[in-house]
From TrEMBL:
EC number: 2.7.1.69
NCBIfam families: FRU
GO molecular function terms noted in the UniProt entry: kinase activity; protein-N(PI)-phosphohistidine-fructose phosphotransferase system transporter activity; protein-phosphocysteine-sugar phosphotransferase activity
Entries under PROSITE patterns matching the protein: PTS_EIIB_TYPE_2 (PS51099)
Superkingdom as given in the UniProt entry: Bacteria
A GO CC term assigned to this protein in UniProt: plasma membrane
Protein name (database record): PTS system fructose-like transporter subunit EIIB
Native species: Clostridium sartagoforme AAU1
Length: 104
């Protein structure tokens, strides 16, 4: 499966990047594709393109604050969780996203 994600926390420091790293690691292990954008105090990194979003089966928003560009995800299947949820249960969040894609 193919996913895109945005990770962001209010300070944009540790949780943002730890959540991103965890999602990338577990998705790679599972043989899935993911492209992750981070939004932090230093700005947007690895910005998702409209093409990235269009090609994705679903979107994972691991966010604890408002993010820029939410309109890109209109009409997409979205799992929205906190960065803390990703840190505590990355596999569970990924399973939730996969279930959404499968229509379960």
């Amino acid at each position: 499966m193919k996913f895109v994600a945005v990770c962001a926390c209010p300070a944009g420091l540790m949780h943002t990047f730890m959540a991103s790293k965890g999602l990338k690691k577990e998705m790679t292990k599972a043989g899935d594709e993911i492209k992750i954008e981070t939004q932090s105090a230093s700005g947007i990194e690895n910005e998702l393109t409209l093409e990235d979003v269009a090609q994705a089966d679903a979107v994972i928003l691991a966010i604890d604050t408002a993010i820029q560009g939410m309109e890109r995800f209109n009409g997409k299947k979205i799992v929205q969780v906190s960065t803390t949820q990703v840190l505590k249960n990355t596999k569970g969040v990924i399973a939730q996203a996969k279930s959404l894609v499968k229509g379960e």
